[in-house]
Design goal:
Blueprint (H helix, E strand, L loop, with lengths): L5 E10 L9 E6 L2 E6 L10 E9 L1 E10 L6 E9 L3 E7 L18 E3 L2 E3 L29 E6 L2 E6 L8 E3 L3 E3 L34
Parallel strand pairs: 1-7
Antiparallel strand pairs: 1-4, 2-3, 2-5, 5-6, 8-9, 10-11, 12-13
């Protein structure tokens, strides 16, 4: 009977925070279980990606997703999901929610932020009837940002898609425009060593087993 009383809950994420620059990890929590997913430059979080799956009892479940990354504010959002058999839920977190505090004074039930406004935790792309009126249905309906970004519509909420190809080898920060590419391992550039005539090029240093992952 235990197996029949549980179902698989699959959690996906959509966000316009830049993977590898603004967000490097998502932590998903349901009851006393948690899972993490790591991100790097080049991942497409605008389109969405699966970040966790849990075996949970039928009924209402609270799913909390926390985004963290170097040099950026963390975003956290909780959604309430009604699990009846296998269930999928998408959690949308937008940069416009950074610094927004919920609930608003006018609605104590609107405890979460979406698109810069407070919404009920039952608001998800799978339950649009629980959400405010959508502000977009296509990317072209959203406002533009810095030159290295493009407007993006994330399930009815406007955001910005970073396009690093506009930055000449750097990275695109939707808040600041083009910036220098991050160095995930914190090490020095490969050309920062001795000059070629210093007699160390064939010393075995490059194949010493210390190459960075």
């Amino acid at each position: 009977m235990g197996c029949e009383s549980e179902a698989v809950l699959v959690v996906s994420l959509r966000t316009d925070l830049v993977p590898g620059l603004e967000v490097t990890r998502a932590t998903t929590t349901v009851a006393d279980a948690s899972a993490t997913a790591d991100f790097a430059l080049g991942d497409d979080l605008i389109a969405g990606t699966r970040i966790a799956a849990f075996d949970v009892p039928h009924g209402q479940q609270r799913v909390t997703v926390t985004l963290s990354g170097p040099g950026a504010e963390s975003l956290r959002r909780t959604v309430v999901v009604d699990v009846r058999g296998g269930t999928a839920v998408t959690v949308v977190l937008t940069r416009s929610c950074r610094g927004v505090s919920c609930p608003a004074a006018s609605d104590a039930a609107a405890t979460e932020c979406l698109g810069g406004v407070c919404v009920a935790p039952e608001c998800t792309p799978e339950t649009p009837e629980q959400c405010p009126t959508a502000e977009c249905a296509a990317d072209g309906e959203c406002p533009s940002g810095p030159a290295c970004t493009r407007p993006a519509c994330l399930d009815g909420v406007c955001g910005l898609r970073a396009d690093a190809s506009e930055c000449g080898g750097g990275a695109c920060d939707p808040d600041e425009g083009c910036v220098g590419a991050p160095t995930p391992d914190g090490g020095a550039p490969m050309d920062a060593g001795p000059e070629p005539d210093a007699g160390v090029i064939d010393s075995g240093a490059l194949d010493s087993g210390t190459s960075r992952l």
